Amino acid sequence: MVQITFAGSGDAFGSSGRMNTCIIVDAPGTRFAIDFGASSLIALSKLGIAHNSIDTILLTHLHGDHGGGIPPMLIDAMLGAKREAPLKIAGPPGTRAWLAEVQEALFPGSSGMSPKFGLVIEELCIGGPHLIGDLKVTTWPAVHTAETNPTQIRVEVAGKTIAYTGDGSWTEDTLKLADHADVLITECYFYSKPVKYHMNYPDIQANRDRLNAKRLILTHMGPEMLDNANRIAEECAYDGMIIEI
Fold this sequence. Notes:
Layout: E1 3-8, E2 22-27, E3 30-36, H1 40-47, E4 56-58, H2 64-67, H3 70-79, E5 87-91, H4 95-106, E6 119-123, E7 129-132, E8 135-141, E9 151-157, E10 160-164, H5 173-178, E11 183-187, H6 201-207, E12 216-219, H7 223-228, E13 235-236, E14 241-244
Parallel strand pairs: 3-4, 4-5, 5-6, 10-11, 11-12, 12-13
Antiparallel strand pairs: 1-2, 1-14, 2-3, 7-8, 8-9, 9-10
């Protein structure tokens, strides 16, 4: 059994008080996060989840609402939480430099700090499978802000497959991402208004029958989508939601 907790299910701007993207996955022998937005420490604290318990963080792209929570997590792991267990962070090309720049911008002078725990930051080329501990991670390109090196991500663990679009407009690669996944988590930013570089509800409607996943969950909803969520049949994520696959 694999358990998925939506610690944060919101957009970049905290619409309706929702936290930034932070998806926690518990599988036999491991706990990992898919994205770790700027509000993730708050979200985890509310749920009673210690960030020291996370073995791996996977990033889909380099925007603050998807990875901005990592620098304060690392600083607390060194100073307050006294982390001892190793931590792996894996993301698209540029992840290592981006995290260093964000940390120094948020906490000037912190770049000289060195963790006593093992810290590995791995940059994943887009396409092809990658083995990260017990996880098999496959990425496809996403159509989002190019400077963030955006990806869609598929994680296989304990015989289950979790697929996540990250942020980005519809692409035919999403069909490969979703194929036979136990759950497909997809961004759904707007209900009727088409917005460039984001997945919106009309995209999901147009391609719903082509998505070969066992379960579909919508997340990263903006104000217009949240106002209309009760009008749709699809399952929608919310902060604190827990599912099992």
